[in-house]
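To close the section, here is one more complete example, presented without commentary so you can practise reading it yourself. The ligand is adenosine-5'-diphosphate.
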Amino acid sequence: MSKKQKRWLVRILVALALFACVLAVTALVSLEQLTGSRTAAVWLEFALFLVPYLIAGYDVLLKAARNIGHGQVFDENFLMSLATVGAFAMVLFPETDPHMAEGAAVMLFYQVGELFQSYAVGRSRKSIADMMDIAPEYATIECDGHLEEVGPDEVPVGSVIVVKPGERVPLDGVVVDGASQLDTAALTGESVPRSVEPGSEVVSGCVNLTGALRVRTSKPYGDSTVARILELVENAAEKKARTESFITRFARVYTPIVTGTAVLLAVVPPLLGAGAWSDWILRGLTFLVVSCPCALVISVPLSFFGGIGGASRLGILVKGSNYLELLSKVDTVVFDKTGTLTDGTFDVVAIHAEEGVDPAAVLSHAAHAEAFSDHPIAVSLRRAYAGPIDQKRVRQAEEASGHGVRAVVDEREVLVGNDKLMARHGAAWHDCELAGTVLHVCVDGRYVGHIVIADVVKADAAQTIADLHAAGVKRCVMLTGDRADVAQAVGGQLGIDEVRAQLLPEDKVNEVERLLGSQADGAKLAFVGDGINDAPVLTRADVGIAMGAMGSDAAIEAADVVLMDDKPSNIARAIRLARGTMRIVWQNIVFALGVKIAILILAALGIANMWLAVFGDVGVAVLAILNAMRAMNVRKYRP
Ligand code: ADP
Ligand code: MG
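Output:
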């Protein structure tokens, strides 16, 4: 409990104690005998109850007044103020039963409910913060032989930092010395530690477990994984879901209607001579108190908040509650192949050099031409080449997405890519009998041969497709720029419903547009990719899901949901969790509105009094909040 909440609690307890005293006094002592007149007795009671009322509710009254000044009249502060002030105003009808006690009680219980809500919201926010407690406080750099701790944002790129066992890696980089195990759980939810050795990449936010490491930083703090994740999480809480704004929109219409009805209820029947003014005014006021939609307004965002928090526990970052809502309606999932369903680490299956060409030279040319590319194919070719790549030998490197690369290596023009690339440059090429991704290599206009590479599907890819179908997803589609035979093989192996091959990045967008066009009403389409050549598609889909905090920045930027550990199986989990959250949201909406309407009808009929109204509202709010907290619980989604 925060300091502010503690002070709040003390205030409520003091008000409650005073209220109990006043209640006891008015019950035991006859104020009328004491003061000698009925009017004086009512005014004395008024004054006595006013003290606990003001202690409990002065801030609500102030807020209501301030909001009226700002032109935002219809909120719950306004409702509570109007209703309770009205209850006290009954003092002007001394001949009726006094209602000061109810007025004070309404305020008290309202405050108890508010305190509870504030506590619950604070707690779920804190547990998200705890979970995301990955922000490093310092980085240790070596300075003239001794270690110095500096702020992570003060470390220039390329400096060597020391990470001791038990410390959090503050910046992204490459290990230059030492071997250790890293706990990546905070980033990926993966509990198995990852071994690192010189040459391994490490990402910030992981905890170094066993050995001291020297790491050469590769990114400034602001671009490091940890800073990007924190930014995502902070922004996520701000984006509003459509269901949520439904509540806000609803409240904007609802409050004036309720206020208007209350006024009519208080004014019309007595004007028609259907009873005493005080009676109907009280009924109107009761109606107002009951109508306050605070349970609804608070529990809906809280449910989303819990859902987002729960998702991040699974290693799924959802950038806003609206995406959780969209995700729950997904019935088509479109996958990119390379890096999404497959590992993206290609092995060289064969190098077919033309007559009189050295296969090693083919690989060397290809690896150099790919020197500046981030494409998984490029990374794999460089790895297969194994030798040092002198980037100074490479000039004018340009990448044509979905085609390949062209570069000048040692003053010779090298093309590496698929048949489309060859056709574009008018180069001759011939096909290969091997199944796999074929990279043609052309040097100075002469075809020197091709490299056949193959990728393996991710371990959980087939299970993912099965899980998605089981979760009611109707279509799983795979789009790829790769050759049709490779695509068919992967698609068949995984049980994909539809496979589209040989697509350029813009074809992928068109394909997604076509699929979007054939969607059933209200159903949503998710696209999952690694952001290499497919960032535009990520933005175009209803929900863009990116592989990997470790993957491309463009993907993380463009995506609505980020899977931190690149595991496709988290997509099915994310969808189930989103549906679970939406179920809770709707339960709360239906429950809160149902009870509200029932009590409103009773109040209008004069059956419900203010006491029932108070308990109804606080009770619904408490139950709705407890229900909302369930969205945080993700144990059932864990593998
Ligand atoms: P996917 O849709 O499977 O993710 P891409 O759209 O990234 O594939 O690439 C499609 C095809 O374009 C690859 O199969 C390859 O033939 C060619 N290609 C793309 N980038 C490169 C590159 N850097 N080097 C060689 N070939 C490439
Ligand atoms: Mg790709």
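Once you have examined the tokens, check your reading against these statements. The CA atoms of residues 434 and 556 lie 35 Å apart. The pocket of adenosine-5'-diphosphate (ligand 1) is lined by residues 336-338, 370, 373, 375, 377-378, 399, 402-405, 416-418, 437, 439, 480-482, 532-533 (CB under 6 Å).
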